[in-house]
Amino acid sequence: MQRLEVWGDPISHSRSPQLHAAAYRALGLDWEYGRRQVNEASFDRELVTARRELRGLSLTMPLKESAWRAAGWRDARALRTGVANTLLLTGDEPSAFNTDIGGFIGALRENGVDAPERARIVGAGATAVSAVIALAEAGTRELEIFARRPQKAVTLVDLAADLGMSVSVHALTSNTSMSDVDATIATLPGGTRIDDVIAGALAQHGGALVDAVYAPWPTQLGEAWMALGRPAASGVQMLLHQALLQVRIFVTGQVAEPLESESVILDTMRSALVGD
Question: Quick check: is 44 in a domain?
């Protein structure tokens, strides 16, 4: 039997086991997918054992940079971001992938946003790096970044400019003037609170929302969007689409080629979340 796991700290909230178990059942594979609490200090030690026992790993916070460093090969998205949320352990050295970017793109499309010309990111942490690249790949040309500490957005500004986007940075303050955008990706940590006035303004001018957080849900921003009757997706949609890309990797070793009957597999994974 092939075994896989998701690692992180904390990890008990992870819904990846439901998603992956559903996918492998649909594929007719007798594979096992579990979860393990692993922190940065124990990652290297745990990986030694994992390489002997596991086919692959899904990584959540705070292990994405550790996973990137442990790899002998990295896909283009992992190279661009400097983080990896997927390790394939079947080769001589781990292969690293970043499927978070594809997760954001899939969630945007589910929210009816295929090509957001103008977009906004709320937050300037590590997850925002993947959000910048996802928006660039989706066709965004004008990007606004709203951050509690605007000075943290310097790397994001350079990245966005390198990807051909015009970019502006704003502080998350109640007196910030906003223009309308097609989509917003929120990358603030779960439980973060900002001024209610700014949350309402972000919703009023934010287009469709994709929030990286799914526990707890709704977030403050999710509530603001829903109060206005605007489309708001929790991190579950992002999780669903990035997990499908992980299934491709774990089954075939490749991320770009769809699986046979992939739409059926995606629906099965989605049903597993609804039934959970």
Answer: yes
**Distance of alpha carbon 116 from alpha carbon 161, whole angstroms:** 17
Q: 148 and 214: one domain?
A: yes
Residues spanned by the domain of 8: 3-100+239-275
DSSP H or E segment with residue 73:
strand 73-74
Asked if residue 51 belongs to a domain, the reply is yes
Dump the DSSP string for 138-189.
HT--EEEEEESSGGGGHHHHHHHHHTT-EEEEEE--TT------SEEEE-PP
Instruction: Give the span between the Cα atoms of 197 and 10, in whole angstroms.
Output: 31
Q: What is the CATH number of the domain that holds 254?
A: 3.40.50.10860
DSSP at 43:
H
Per-residue pLDDT reduced to its tens digit, 214-252: 888 999 999 999 999 999 999 999 999 999 999 999 999
Structural domain count, the chain: 2
Cβ–Cβ under 8 Å, residues 196 and 202:
no
64 is catalytic: yes
- Report the C-alpha gap between 95 and 42 in whole angstroms: 20
pLDDT of residue 214: 87
- The pLDDT score that the predictor gives to residue 265 is 96
Res 275: pLDDT: 55
Q: Looking at the domain assignment, is residue 168 inside a domain?
A: yes
- Asked if residues 137 and 163 have their Cβ atoms less than 8 Å apart, the reply is no
Within 8 A by CB and 6+ apart from 116, the residues are: 108, 135, 138, 139, 140, 181, 182, 183, 207
Q: Are 145 and 167 in contact (CB under 8 A)?
A: yes
In a domain, 136, yes or no: yes
Cut 0.90: pTM above it: yes
Query: Which is the catalytic residue, given 64, 77, 118, 120?
Result: 64
Nearest Cα to 152, choosing from 136, 168, 169? 169
CATH number of the domain enclosing 226? 3.40.50.720
Counting as low any pLDDT under 50, the low residues of the chain are none
